[in-house]
Design a protein that fits this description.
The protein is α/β, with parallel strands linked by helices. Helix content is about 40%, strand content about 15%. The longest helix is centred in the N-terminal third of the chain and has 22 residues.
Length: about 650
């Protein structure tokens, strides 16, 4: 039943669901109606808040069947990826939270231990649930506990290598474990890769059926031998199916296979799950589903089936936000322009062609774009191979996901001094997706890689320029990082010192404010506020933040105080790196660094989180004014401090800030 059809009787059954036990008592007819009500609920709520709609529309019946067969939370459900757990949240008492889905203080867009005993792992980074499940099943076996572990692996997660490492161990351990393959043929977009092709042969319209029909038509017009030959071919049809079916592949590993089953048929999925539960060893249940099922605009969205829309109109599916120029769009357009000029430039993405902007290049030059699936490690080393072959790969991923490929960037790319450009979308605090998606680690993590250069553009103009500079580098890797959302208006430099842009300056040289990337405009606003207090601030954008430009150290030497502001973790960040460069130059100018403390930030809008961290123009201006004014104060005599633990954390300590001299 589609959303439009179920809307006439909204929520009658759903309103009575307080937990899994309520679902277990329902009849088949009630379950069909409940599924329609759930889809209506999902579309209505997500249309207001935004969120992962398509994946959850596809797992309604699958989740209902899971909660009827197993007993959560005693039996553990692990969703991979976690964005397909909305229906699970609804069936475990969290319907009321959907009015604040992914909003500050509201319901998380992923499973969350803080929300419910029914949630175990957040798991928004794909392809990890089977490893969790392997360890969990081993722990229960060792402790003598009879508890089922169910891992739902879908939305392209099986394209990740960790899944196959885990399957090898799961087969060897032979502990009870149910692996539900939610096979919708997609991650964000249609899933790419050999395994995806293998599974696709058993979807609802398998290729061998079409081939058989063609053969039947051809032989039917052939006298005498035609019909007998067709019967022979029909007899071997089952053999053809067995040759392409995934059960052979999984059972060769020692894992039993059930399926494929229609993932939108509660009774069929329930029957398969009960058989898997009773087996006593590892079993794969292959459920064929459709992403966006039941909501026509999602089903007809070829790009990503409404994978993660912002607020939209329910009737039409049209986005409600006014169109604006996004960072991703600027990158995408400039990459295509560069590719027009340079045939050696190729693109790589990890199952995220549309979200990262690589799709535009793929549309124009399909032979020059490689979607490797959810496999960031492979993406990095494959890029190294492309570079060894004389090309310049541009690898576009979310900043948080490149963390998974640190070893490959370090040893496979950088150690060989290969020209690979990594473009990190959604760098810094990104907002409603929460802590696993915040791209706050890259400047610290990759800042230690020898020979790696990192650029942080402040606006559209510098993004275009720095992307061109990055792909012009031919003796080592580069990173270009930028945040999510709309691009602010261009902020021209007053002048340039070497490679450092000066954005604002004063006749007084009290403070050098180093504004990293998108904080350029904030830096200019801070300078104006501090000027009202009688102090002069020079605002600079280093443009390339790794390695630290020599000109930045020179500029620091002519100021009384240096302040850095960045939307990455402070430990190992730009402030840390600049402080080291200043020490190496025997420069004793005091430095204060503002950034993100190394703690898990909650979900909320980017503006809300930055305000919490004191990274607003008002907060930074107040801090800078206080720090520089204390440079004029007389030195107080040394006092004996109270014992550690007896003093409250105030001021800089409370905000997680740092000062260096």
């Amino acid at each position: 039943m589609r959303v439009e059809e179920g809307a006439a009787n909204p929520g009658r059954l759903l309103a009575g669901v307080r937990g899994p036990q309520d679902v277990k008592r329902m009849s088949a007819e009630e379950l069909d109606l409940l599924a329609a009500e759930i889809r209506d609920f999902l579309v209505t709520k997500v249309s207001r808040t935004g969120g992962h709609l398509g994946p959850n529309l596809g797992v309604v019946e699958l989740t209902l069947a899971m909660h009827r067969v197993f007993d959560s939370p005693r039996d553990r459900f692990l969703f991979d990826t976690g964005h397909q757990a909305y229906v699970h949240k609804m069936l475990t008492g969290r319907q009321s939270g959907f009015d604040t889905l992914r909003q500050r203080g509201g319901l998380s867009g992923y499973p969350s231990q803080a929300e419910s005993e029914h949630d175990l792992i957040e798991n928004s980074h794909a392809s990890t649930a089977l490893s969790y499940a392997d360890g969990l099943a081993k722990a229960y076996a060792l402790r003598g506990e009879r508890r089922d572990v169910v891992a739902v692996v879908g939305d392209g997660a099986l394209t990740g290598g960790m899944c196959w490492e885990a399957l090898n161990n799961i087969a060897a351990a032979r502990n009870p474990l149910v692996i539900v393959v939610n096979d919708n043929g997609r991650s964000y977009a249609p899933t790419i890769g050999g395994l995806a092709d293998h599974l696709s042969t058993l979807r609802l319209n398998p290729g061998y059926e079409r081939v058989l029909d063609v053969v039947k038509d051809a032989l039917g017009s052939t006298p005498l031998v035609g019909r007998p030959m067709y019967e022979v071919l029909h007899a071997v049809k089952k053999g053809i199916k067995d040759a392409v079916a995934p059960q052979a592949m999984f059972e060769d590993l020692g894992i039993k296979y059930v399926g494929p089953v229609d993932g939108h048929d509660v009774a069929a999925v329930e029957s398969a799950l009960r058989r898997a539960k009773g087996f006593g060893g590892p079993v794969i249940v292959h459920a064929v589903t459709r992403k966006g099922y039941g909501y026509r605009p999602a089903e007809e969205d070829e790009a990503d089936c409404f994978h993660g829309p912002s607020a939209f109109d329910v009737a039409t599916g049209k986005q409600l936000a006014a169109p604006s120029v996004k960072w991703t769009h600027v990158f995408s357009d400039e990459l295509v322009a560069i590719a027009d000029e340079r045939p050696d430039v190729v693109g790589i993405t990890a199952a995220m062609a549309e979200p990262t902007g690589i799709a535009a290049l793929a549309r124009k030059y399909p032979e020059r774009v490689y979607d490797v699936g959810i496999a960031e490690q492979h993406a990095a080393t494959s890029a190294a191979g492309l570079a060894l072959g004389g090309l310049h790969p541009v690898v576009a991923v979310y900043a948080t996901f490149l963390n998974r490929a640190f070893d490959q960037v370090l040893l496979d790319v950088a150690m060989h001094k290969l020209p690979v450009t990594f473009v990190l979308d959604r760098a810094g605090i990104t907002g409603p997706d929460g802590p696993s998606h915040y791209g706050i680690w890259d400047m610290s993590v990759f800042g230690v890689v020898p020979g790696l250069r990192i650029a942080a553009p402040r606006d559209a103009a510098t993004l275009r320029a720095e992307l061109r500079e990055a792909v012009a580098v031919d003796d080592g890797p580069t990173i270009l990082r930028f945040p999510t959302g709309s691009v602010a208006k261009d902020l021209p430099a007053v002048r340039r010192v070497g490679q450092v842009d000066v954005l604002a300056e004063s006749s007084r040289t009290d403070v050098l404010l180093v504004a990293v990337g998108a904080f350029g405009q904030l830096g200019v606003e801070v300078a104006a506020r501090v000027a009202e207090q009688g102090y002069g601030v020079t605002v600079v954008d280093p443009r390339w933040i790794r390695p630290i430009p020599e000109e930045l150290v020179t500029l620091a030497s002519s100021h009384r105080l240096v302040v850095t502001v960045e939307d990455g973790v402070r430990a190992g960040g730009v402030g840390d790196a600049l402080a080291k460069a200043m020490r190496d130059a025997d420069l004793m100018v005091p430095l204060r660094d503002l950034g993100v403390p190394p703690v898990w930030q909650p979900h909320g809008t980017r503006a809300q989180i930055l305000a919490d961290l004191g990274l607003t123009a008002q907060d930074v201006a107040r801090d800078v004014t206080g720090w520089v004014s204390r440079l004029d104060a007389p030195i107080e005599p040394v006092r004996i401090s109270a014992p550690a633990g007896e003093r409250p954390a105030t001021g800089d300590r409370a905000k997680g800030r740092n000062g260096r001299a």
